[in-house]
Structure formats: C-alpha cells, structure tokens
Amino acid sequence: MKEFLPRDLYFVKLCKKRFYLYAFITMKIGIIGLPNVGKSTLFKALTKKEILIANYPFATINPNVGVVALPDERVQKLSAMSKSKKTIPAIVEFYDIAGLVKGASEGQGLGNQFLAHIRETAAIVHVVRCFNASDILHVEESVNPLRDIDIINTELILKDFETMQKRMEKLAGEAKRGQKDSQKTLETLKKLEQAFNENALALTLREEFLLQEIVKELCLLTAKPQIYLFNGKESDVSNELKQKVRGDYVVANLGAGESVGVLIEKCYEILGLISFFTTGEDETRAWTIKKGIKAPHAAAVIHTDFEKKFIKAEVINWQKLLEVGSWQVARQRGWMRIEGKEYVVQDGDVIEFKV
C-alpha cells in the first residue's frame, strides 16, 4: 500500500475477539534552517510545547517532535451535527531539527546527524530569517535571506551528491560486469548528477524522473517538497526573495506570535493530501489520503479488511450533509450517492463504506 506513505502510527484494537489494525496517515514535516532563524519559535507556536529557545547555535541537538491538529472547521461542524462523543482531526507531526551551517554535509556542526533527521521527514519547512535584531546573533554575522537559502540548499545538494555518487560507484562496477539494468540506472543518475552540478534541487526536475525507482530509493533530501517560511514582516521580504524560491512560501512574524495555521494547511497541500470524513454518534473523524485514491484504498485506511471486502460506498459532500442535517434526511432526499470500486475519493467527502 505504498500510496499511503508516509504512514507510521499504528494501533491495534481488540474487538469482538478479533484484532483489527488501524493505520493512520501522519505527515512528518521537518523544520530546517540556519541557527537562530526562528525554528524553535515556530515549533513552539505550532505545538504550544515548552522547549529551549536560546540565543546561540545548536540549542537543539535531538529533534523536538510535536503533533499538531490540522485546522479544519469541517470536522467540528460534522461532529456538532452528529452530536459525536469524540472528534478526531487529521494531524501533522513537526520535527524541530537543529540548525544547519556551512559545511554541514561534511559534518560541521554535527551536520551529518542533523541531515539524517531530515531524511526521515516527508516534507521540509525552510525557515529563513528576514528580520533585523541586533540582540539576536546570526551565525553568518549579518541578515541576508538570499545567502542563507543558498547555504542550506547547497548543503542539502552536497549530501545528496554524496549519496548518489556512492550508488553510482556500485552501479559502474556492475555495468562493467555486463549487467544491462545497472548501465541503464547509471545513465539515469548521470542526469541527476548534472542537475546537482548546476546547483539545482532534485525537486525541480520533472515528476516522471523523480518517480523512477532508483531516485525514490535514494531518499534524496532535495527531492522533498519544500515550503519557505520567511520570518519577519511583509516589508522585510523583497520581491527578489519571493522570486528566488519559485515555490510555496509563507510570511510570518513569529516574534509577534502570529498565527501560523496557514503553514499547516500548506504542508497538507504540497504533499498532495486530502481529507474525507466519517461521522456518527460515537465519533467524527478526518481521514488523510493521497489525492487520486479510489474508494477501496481509502476504506483500507479505516480498516485493512475493508479494501478486500469492499462492496460499495455511500458518499455525500460535507456541505450537503450539513444542509439537510442528518444521514437519514439525506437518504430520503436521494442526496446520497452510491459509488463503486472505481470512484476517486474527493476532498470533503463524507463516506459510509459497505463491506
């Protein structure tokens, strides 16, 4: 069930003398950047956890981990409609990873250890300091967001280059011994090598290229979706800086305690995830799946047996269900759709699976 990755939180429940395995999809998001740019401040704002925030590099050694509920009014409204005993939103796991410095790919500042932490995440929030504050040290002794972005991305590229070259050396040996598949794979990696030599992140390459098995196996740091969080006021962020990143970014004045709920939604978006819902008196729950998943695969997220035993699904959009106020009235009005195995689940669907 590879399409459900990243999945890492499993619970086993004993019910009616049988064990049921429930698999919940969670998003692991790594928070990275230079030291003293606001990573730990962001983590605290997201998770409301008390952590060490210090005015010196490497205050964080092991990643702080926090679980954050995805802001989603749909879950709350459906729960209120059903008078549910429990309300369970989708969640995001944030990892506050220690600051990287120039030379991290060669071990500077415990860089190898910190880069390994990034490898375990599904996406990256790259915090960039844009604010000026003389009382907060900057590891490069000046505030220059464009330079800082280049430092971090260069270290990620250098680490990926090292990972790729080790594999290329092995493939070159196999190719000399006449293994045709190894030669073909080696040619693929040479294209990646060219991109790295041009200081390009892997994620800038075509999606078809990134989906090749060898590229996925390498688990490249620069292939991970990346959001830039510009820490400062809107006036601190130049147009040149916005154009430089060519991707998703958020401006947040973390020092003023600004809400960063939009960042959580962005993380959900860049990973290509959507939510469908189940609701009733016992509980209302948001379930996370990849966009484009068909109904039987979505059912397996609730219960592994549901995919094999899938018969059909009763589906209604969350707004339509709220409009009539109950499943019963929705059925009476003929608003419930009966969908089969080929149905592609849509964001905001409320579903009852029949197995």
Describe the structure.
It is a single chain. The longest helix has 32 residues. The protein has 13 helices and 14 strands. The chain has 355 residues and is of the alpha/beta class. Helix 2 runs parallel beside helix 12 and helix 4 runs antiparallel to helix 5. The protein has two domains: 191 residues, P-loop containing nucleotide triphosphate hydrolases (Rossmann fold), CATH 3.40.50; 63 residues, Roll (Ubiquitin-like (UB roll)), CATH 3.10.20. The chain starts with 6 loop residues before the first strand and ends with a strand. A six-stranded mixed beta sheet has the order 4-6-3-7-8-9, with helices on both faces.
How many DSSP-defined strands? Answer: 14
Shape: flat
The named CATH superfamily of the largest domain = P-loop containing nucleotide triphosphate hydrolases
CATH third-tier fold name of the largest domain: Rossmann fold
CATH architecture name of the largest domain? 3-Layer(aba) Sandwich
Count the DSSP helices.
13
Backbone CA Rg: 23 Å
CATH class of the largest domain: Alpha Beta
Query: Structural class given helices, strands, pairing?
Result: alpha/beta
Binned strand content: 15-25%
Mean pLDDT across the residues is 82
Strand order within the widest beta sheet: 4-6-3-7-8-9
